[in-house]
Write a structure and sequence with these properties.
Radius of gyration: 23 Å
Bound molecules: iron/sulfur cluster
Strand order of the largest sheet: 2-1-3-4-5-6
Number of domains: 2
Structural class: alpha/beta
CATH topology of the largest domain: pyruvate-formate lyase- activating enzyme
Largest sheet: 6 strands, mixed
Number of strands: 17
Shape: globular
């Protein structure tokens, strides 16, 4: 059979569908380059509304966050109920998506590829069951399937042919061909079969310039509030030491690799032409891993895509040349950068050191001032409840936020999650039963561990946390800087 007659159904389960999914675009491009007939199903193209990560907040959002982060004993049962209910509604299979997938399966594709995050377990079970009835193989891939316990848990889903934890940018066609021909797919790395047999762990893909330009033509562009092209200049993170970071232990986050500036700019030019937009979202974990990449884009993009605007995430590390000095930021703004996000995590130096964050409170403060002065909209992420956090740490966080709230546009303040394979997870797993944490309970389906930290359930901690959350609410209830409004809610 010719490849062009072989139909591959590619299902995007990503509900954050305010822009196309990069991984799906890359796989689509790889398969089409080899002549496969690819059908892409995305939640938005059958009616699922776009989901914004953040928006201007109302008092109700503030109250929800306070409940979500509460450690006060009498409130905990309500908090846990609210968390479970929220997770249920967030993770439950979307009926419309399932219906569309079912009717696509009835057309008997040669294979179904599911790109799944861990929250998609239930929907994957349902799709795999439908595919099994018609004898269609189902391959499930995703960033966390290089973690053994997680892949082992997921391989038991009835109807799943294999779990894949590997970067398949250049091997996808031969892999899919082997699945269709029922050949031994254990010759490909990162594969786990339902019976538990598995191949060697995948090594990170290099050089990244071999990866094809993403094919986003199947995404419902007309339904996005703003047309934005997702892109990456590299995978992994040059620092890669934060003890809580699950991104750098995921399949595509392992070890830092970069594309060439020329390859990135050529793709930006091409995608802009294809989709008639000049808005870009860099999905790099750390866009300043290689400061010359950031500078190269800032300096060269205006002549390649006149009027281009873009946003990205950086790490305010302590290198002398981290690409984030005031002059660098001014050049970035001139080159189209409109918004920057970074992991502030906490206002306590002691805690930053415990986390191995590689940042200082002073440098974070300097960066916030410089970025604001240069004209950027600033967003940061933080969390409460890191193992070992104390009242004094939360007091420092509240102080930091209050001192900088006039410079920040958005803050994402979460409860800390203990995620599988991270250094802190391993340390805590070894100390299971130790006094620092209680109720340790592994959850291999979601690659995390539930726990309680009694040290942050004191009255003093709660008082400082209330101050910090009030500051977050004051920040998030403002409109974002006008130059960055088209990017509001995206990161
Ligand atoms: S800087 Fe960011 S991406 Fe890098 S290890 Fe730390 S949290 Fe992870």
């Amino acid at each position: 059979m010719e490849l062009s007659k072989k139909k591959v159904l590619l299902v995007d389960l990503n509900a954050f569908s305010s822009f196309p999914t990069l991984a799906i675009g890359i796989i689509t491009a790889g398969l089409r380059r080899s002549g496969f007939n690819v059908e892409v199903l995305s939640p938005l193209d059958h009616g699922k509304p776009t989901a914004m990560r953040e928006r201007r907040e109302r008092f109700f959002d503030h109250a929800k966050r306070r409940l979500h982060l509460s450690g006060y004993a009498p409130v905990r049962p309500l908090r846990d109920f609210a968390r479970t209910t929220r997770a249920f509604f967030r993770d439950r299979p979307d009926k419309m998506t399932l219906q569309r997938v079912k009717s696509a399966i009835e057309d008997k594709p040669s294979v179904i590829l599911l790109s799944a995050y861990l929250m998609h377990y239930e929907v994957v079970c349902k799709i795999a069951a439908s595919a099994k009835e018609l004898g269609v193989p189902v391959i499930v891939g995703g960033p966390m399937f290089n973690i053994s316990d997680t892949a082992n848990h997921w391989r038991n889903i009835p109807g799943v042919t294999a779990i894949v934890g590997a970067e398949v940018d250049v091997s996808i066609s031969s892999f899919v061909d082997a699945v269709i021909k029922k050949e031994n797919i254990l010759k490909f790395p990162g594969v786990v079969l339902p019976d538990g047999r598995k191949s060697a762990a995948a090594v990170p893909l290099r050089p990244l310039d071999l990866s094809p330009f993403a094919d986003f033509t199947d995404f419902p562009w007309e339904r996005y509030p703003v047309s934005i092209i997702p892109i990456m200049t590299g995978r992994g993170c040059q620092w890669a030491k934060c003890a809580f970071c699950s991104d750098v232990v995921s399949t595509n986050g392992l070890s830092y690799r970069s594309r060439s500036v020329g390859h990135v700019l050529a793709e930006m030019e091409e995608q802009s032409r294809r989709h008639s937009t000049r808005n870009f979202l860099f999905l790099d974990l750390k866009l300043n891993s290689k400061p010359d990449m950031l500078r190269g884009i800032a300096e060269q993009l205006p002549s390649r895509v006149p009027g281009a605007q873009w946003i990205g995430t950086v790490h305010v590390d302590t290198r002398g040349n981290n690409g984030l000095g005031f002059q660098d930021l001014k050049i970035a703004v001139k080159g189209g950068m409109r918004r920057v996000s970074f992991g502030l995590e906490t206002g306590s130096q002691r805690l930053l050191d415990v986390m191995r964050k590689g940042s200082t409170v002073e440098r974070n403060s300097e960066f916030i001032n410089n970025a604001h002065r240069a004209g950027l909209s600033l967003r940061c992420t933080m969390f409460a409840g890191y193992p070992g956090e104390t009242e004094d740490d939360m007091a420092a966080t509240a102080n930091f936020l209050e001192a900088h709230e006039h410079l920040l546009d958005r803050v994402r303040f979460n409860a800390f999650s203990l995620l599988d394979e991270t250094p802190i997870f391993k340390r805590m797993a070894e100390q299971s039963g130790a006094i620092i944490l209680t109720d340790l309970e592994p959850d291999p389906q979601r690659a995390k561990m539930e726990y309680r930290n009694p040290a942050i359930e004191t009255k003093g901690y709660r008082i400082h946390k209330r101050r910090a959350l009030a500051s977050v609410y004051r920040i998030n209830s403002q409109r974002v800087r006008s130059s960055a409004r088209q990017f509001d809610g995206l990161m």
